Amino acid sequence: MSGTGLWAWPGAAGVRDRFVASDPGLIRMLSALGTVCAVLLTLGVLGALHAPVPSLVTGALTAMVSTVAVTEPRPRDQALTLAAGVPVTLAVIMVGSTLTPYRVVADAVFVLLIFAAIYIRRLGPRATTLGIFAFQLFFVTQFVETRVEQLPQLCLAVIVAFGASGLVRFAALRPASERTPARLQRAFRLRLALVLDALIEVAEGGPEAPRAERAVRVLRRRTAHLHAAALMIEKRLGTVAPGPRTGTTIQHFTADAETALERLAITVLRLLWPGADIDTLTRHRAKGHLAGSAVDARDAVALPILVSKLRALRVDLGPARLLPSGTDGEEARNRLPGFRDTEDPPDVSPALRDALRSAGEFARAVSGPDAAVAGRTSTSPEVSREKPSRGASGRAADPVPGQTGTRVRPTTRTALQVAAGSALAIVGGELLSPQRWYWAVFTCWVVYIGTTSTGDILVRGYRRLIGTIVGVVAGFALAALVGDRPWAAFALAILSVFGMYYTTAVSYTLMSLFVTTMIGMLYTLLHTLTPDVLVVRIEETALGIVCGLAAAVLVLPVGTRERTDRLLRDVLERLGVVLARALARLGGEPGGDLLTAARALDSALDDLRVSLQPLIIPVSPLRSRRRTALAVLGLLETAAFHARGLAVAAGRVPADVAIGADPDVVDEVRRIDSTLAVLIRSVGDGGQGGTPLELGSGIATRLVLSDNGAKAETVIATRQVLRHLSRVDASIQGLARTLDVTAPDDP
Asked: What's the pTM?
């Protein structure tokens, strides 16, 4: 196996690089490490003060909550939220400790507090955080069974916890904003390298390799990870870039490099499987078996040329590194290998020529971001033309037309559902185990966080139950290993806290596993771990999930179909925004920030992908709906990829080439927009009767027109724009056929 294959980067350096690539900017690691440091600092201070166990538990849990619940991007806002959280938390601790002896009253107040904590989310992120503080600390009082006489010590524990959280956040682990862009860029380059490794493995083995299809699956998976990293970087840049020019330059680099590499991978796959329908690397459109005609005889001989260029690209890409301060951009571009557009192509088929040209495009895409990160001024016309208009979330600032509200606000609906589910969980939990009833309530709360439909709750509950069961087994096994060594149990509990917050954004199942493992270690420290305790944990968890589902079904239910239809309309509307801005840009008008609109489309599609999880998971019994959902998702991902490519390509078209003013192109874009409008109106209405949607051919025809003596750069940029438009059109037409949508007949 070659050194740049699937298993490249062995040893400690390889592990480090993969770790950095999986966590752009070390965001998850710093978050988990900050939580652990806050907990340790709190326990250290309280331990030095000889605080009792209830205060230690209260302080540790408060430190965890106050560290992870504050999510505002600006440090000033974070400080204000932490400051506001202290009196809220102290008040909740006092109320909870006072009501602990009065079980029925405490339960009633708990349900009302749960409703209020969800309801006030409409007021913004600070209100959301304060609601989390209120819920979590009232839960702590019931979990620890605190009393009024313990209030002085409990209040001290809360103050110490908030102080430790603030110290860690603003001093010990305060991120250096000037370093973050370089970290993000390095992580993204490593992701590019991983995809390139997989692509080299595919190209070297060829279509006849025994593990060819497995190599292609790895390539698809790594491409999906690359796209996820690009979206994470996009959101992160809105808050940490030292200047708008640097942030915009990195934004354009990630979009350009991602699109160029995916384009290169697609051309290589088409070269190796000429008869296969390969238009995207999305796994949702991956066929079960790659089939196609044999590779062209000329290409079989010349294929090593492409492999050597891919290898040279991989070597030059290497680990992320800044260019020397005196390096000229053109010199760096010449250093990068690849088929130059100005060179005469070798005697190969058009497919291999296209792959070689794509390698050159990727070489140019990765040659120019480092100067911006190092603080030098970019000369990119796209960057200097306009400033980004993204908000804190990374979405486009301009509203999407056509979105309509519902009669009941989502926060009101969720508040009623969680309150009803929690009331059921309290009753059922106390009947099941009067001492451990709180686990059912906590489960009911957490399965609702971040969910928007009954299907979402079902999937999250299923994953939490699996993680809890595995965590129980792990807890028993670790308890047997540590024996009577309390420091070993404490260390494993701290490691579980780290794992819990490090994996939250990656796998809800893993997070649940670490939560249960941590609980097992705590009971080991208290010498109260028994099989019955952890079995009750599983039972209460299952009960909380059932109560949450019951509330979701009975109280103002929102079905997965309703939710996905709304998100599908959002995706289609944002796709229309990208096309409109592209046409304006190609016609010589400003048109707005194309890449911001394309990333807003990616974010909307990501929301839809999450919402479709209940339908597309392998265990879904709705096989027909699963096939339809996968087809729709695959077509939309293809359209989004080409929309992103269109945004990049439109910025390369020379200002004197007004592609958007061509009547044929204008007509095609208007027809695509008309098709989108029909799709948007029909989503949720079961389709419309009428005539089949018109399929245009203007763009496809122009793709084969002669260049009429134009410059090679202009011809290539023009063909790229038209190719992306054509693929978007084909994806939309396929979506209309999949959804059985037709245009309404004229009256």
From this structure: 0.78
